[in-house]
Amino acid sequence: MGKTLFEKIWEKHIVKTIDGGPSVLYIDKHFIHEVTSPQAFTGLNKRGIKVLRPQQVVATADHNVPTLNQHLPIKEELGRLQVEALKKNCADHNIQLYGLGHPFQGIVHVIGPDLGITQPGMTIVCGDSHTSTHGAFGAIAFGIGTSEVEMVFASQCLLQSKPKLMRINVDGILNKGVVSKDIVLYILSKITASGATGYAVEFAGSAIRSLSMEARMTICNMSIEMGGRCGLIAPDETTLSYINGRQFAPQGIQWDKKITEWKLLYSDDDAIFDKEIFIRAEDIEPMITYGTNPGMGIGVTEKIPTNETINENDKSGLSKALAYMGLQQGAAIKGQKIDYVFIGSCTNSRIEDLRMVASFVKGKKKADDVEVWIVPGSKQVEAQAIEEGIDKIFAEAGFQLRQPGCSACLGMNEDKIPAGKYCISTSNRNFEGRQGAGARTLLASPLSAAAAAITGVVTDVRELLN
Fold first, then answer.
1. Per-residue pLDDT tens for 178-208?
2. Is residue 289, in this structure, part of any structural domain at all?
3. Does the residue 292 lie in any domain?
4. Domain identity same for 308 and 188
5. For the chain, what is the domain count?
6. In whole numbers, what is the pLDDT of the chain averaged over residues?
7. What is the DSSP string of 76-118?
8. Does 290 reside within a domain?
9. N or C: which end of the chain has fewer CB within 10 A?
10. Residue 228: what pLDDT?
11. What residue numbers bound the domain in which 442 lies?
């Protein structure tokens, strides 16, 4: 019997399987940031031990950092203390840190691919749920808790139970104005925010294979929003072309050797999945969320659901979500007034995302009463945007290009959306208070967010495309 992509990677990394229990899984790469690592380092220090393999750990500051004036001391005390602790811990344990001011600093799930650190066939962990992003390269990548961060520090291994396996096939040709963020929001709207709970999800099909690496990362990033343990996509020529020549990518003979290995990373034709889902790309239109979890999404031309059109068990959730969002059952989402646009986060802050937005807004101006924040995912993305003149396009449109960080994805740093205000966001979560206490978040693609920035309302971007 054939094996799935997940099984091929998983089995190669098993150190030991406990009878009737989990496996001891070897971890190839461990990413850390300032928020979930301090307690783990404290645990190590109390035990009087060092990080076992510091050369396999990469650190950056991203969650709780400002995105303006990063050369100045951090104003918020918690963020300042966390960043200082990360510096000290990395120095004490000989870990490479890409902190503020470093040319490789950025969002942890952006810099790994940026630098060629993320590679097919790896096991990758981080104390952050959206570690699933790295699965776009054909890797098993997942978030872990602080106690597990300490476990990996100490042993380079992790106790893990093998998840069930799901494959989501998206076949066909995407419609105009529809991009990868729309694909994943569409999937979420169909299977719900708990539809992949307990599964490792492989994304496949002709529409997936047609996507760039940046677009694939967006999809794998949000596999966690379906409840999935991780998401992954088989590597192909697109993957190899993206990795080749990057800072820490294999070179010379090592590159040739790795290519031979990576070309074996796919699900065999007779591999068995516990569940398969099939989706037609042609059925997807630009998507937007209306509620308080990422599964509460609709096509931009559709109406907000009503109690009559949803499952009985979801009625109380719908009422609660719409009360928080200030929206009405059965109302059109298109035309809804918005106050802020946030384009960034580990979901949509790569150079391709910024190019997409710049191409759309060139020669246009933002609506007068909308504030627009563009936050690149890394210093490398920021530098590339400036080199290509994207920063000037944004400035002329009235958009503010800030410095790298998680920013308004989460209400943890200085970049918060005020209570009661509507923000179209390219991030991954729209929970109550996610972008700030009382903030109202509508998730969308960079294209849809850019359209709303120009018009001031939720807009069908297809109407503005040439």
1. 999 999 999 999 999 999 999 999 999 999 9
2. no
3. no
4. no
5. 2
6. 97
7. SHHHHHHHHHHHHHHHHTT-EEE-TT-TT-B-HHHHHHHTT--
8. no
9. C
10. 97
11. 300-463
